[in-house]
């Protein structure tokens, strides 16, 4: 009888945590069997432990600070020209890195943007490539965004829908009326100036490009096509600065994509990835059958980069053949 009770508990525990996710699982792990049942029963009686209710809480948006408006460069800032440490690695192919003219970082504040611009040679026309799908902007120069538990609030929206949602949220902020920031323990913020990123960037005489990508995931094919079309017509004096929220996954992905487009004929994918890691990017390499994949998104992203590298290597028409048409042809060949 005792065994049956334990098995029943395990089944209930597995079902509930599968529906509700790791947030509830972490709570229940700290309790014994009786305490777990008591907690679950109490939550059910309150009506708070149901799939829809939990998901509503899980997906609820909170306005958060991404970067305070301090006089410092944004987190994880790096430039392709900062290759002093990399040059010591004699086994690494560095061809094309010194002329790649790219940089990356986490989300910058207004002051952080000015410092970022100063760190790049003024002979370049700078393009800020905003990879964030989530709605974000600036209040008094402070970088803020609307975030849910997985930072995927705008997943599935088109670029136009993302921008519309973002502007709606920013326009709802009233100048002079105190506003609560979820992760700001110091004080309320009284908005004096509210801007979207395009307004801020262009006010500093830089160009702004928006390519919304879901956090922790690979870019969709249409976004890849858009980016390739954009970069194939860039002038030699162009500099691309990529950023997402933390300057890691999405930023590294696009810094690698750009490196691939420019250098895949002469540099292996492994060396492109290694030099991006040494610059300060995230290691996106995922070994086959790696169990530590973020819901398989990491594996999908790495598989995409391997395929994109092959696409770039095969390209001989200045990328007139789009990525999406190329990958579809490869998928057709597999099924033919």
TrEMBL record:
Domain Tyrosine specific protein phosphatases: 225-274
Alphabetized Gene3D superfamilies for the sequence: 3.30.70.1690, Protein tyrosine phosphatase superfamily
Origin organism lineage: Bacteria, Bacillati, Bacillota, Clostridia, Eubacteriales
Domain of life: Bacteria
Short name of one Pfam family: PTPlike_phytase
Descriptive protein name: Protein-tyrosine phosphatase
């Amino acid at each position: 009888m005792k065994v049956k009770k334990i098995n029943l508990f395990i089944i209930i525990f597995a079902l509930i945590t599968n529906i509700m996710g790791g947030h509830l699982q972490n709570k229940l792990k700290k309790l014994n069997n009786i305490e777990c049942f008591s907690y679950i029963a109490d939550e059910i009686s309150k009506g708070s432990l149901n799939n829809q209710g939990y998901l509503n809480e899980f997906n609820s948006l909170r306005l958060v600070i991404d970067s305070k408006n301090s006089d410092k460069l944004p987190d994880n800032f790096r430039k392709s020209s900062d290759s002093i440490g990399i040059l010591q690695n004699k086994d690494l192919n560095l061809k094309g890195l010194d002329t790649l003219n790219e940089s990356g970082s986490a989300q910058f504040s207004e002051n952080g943007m000015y410092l970022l611009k100063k760190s790049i040679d003024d002979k370049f026309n700078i393009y800020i490539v905003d990879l964030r799908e989530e709605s974000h902007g600036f209040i008094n120069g402070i970088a803020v965004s609307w975030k849910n538990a997985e930072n995927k609030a705008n997943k599935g929206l088109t670029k136009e829908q993302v921008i519309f949602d973002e502007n709606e949220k920013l326009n709802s902020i009233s100048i002079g009326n105190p506003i609560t920031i979820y992760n700001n323990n110091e004080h309320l913020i009284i908005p004096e100036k509210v801007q979207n990123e395009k307004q801020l960037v262009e006010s500093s005489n830089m160009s702004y490009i928006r390519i919304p990508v879901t956090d922790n995931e690979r870019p969709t094919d249409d976004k890849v096509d858009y980016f390739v079309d954009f970069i194939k017509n860039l002038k030699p004096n162009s500099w691309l600065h990529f950023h997402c929220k933390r300057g890691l996954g999405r930023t590294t992905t696009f810094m690698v994509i750009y490196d691939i487009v420019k250098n895949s004929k002469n540099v292996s994918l492994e060396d492109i990835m290694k030099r991006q890691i040494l610059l300060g990017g995230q290691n996106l390499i995922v070994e086959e059958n790696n169990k530590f994949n973020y819901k398989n998104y990491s594996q999908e992203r790495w598989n995409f980069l391997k395929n994109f590298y092959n696409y770039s290597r095969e390209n001989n028409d200045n990328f007139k053949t789009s990525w999406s048409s190329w990958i579809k042809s490869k998928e057709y060949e597999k099924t033919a």
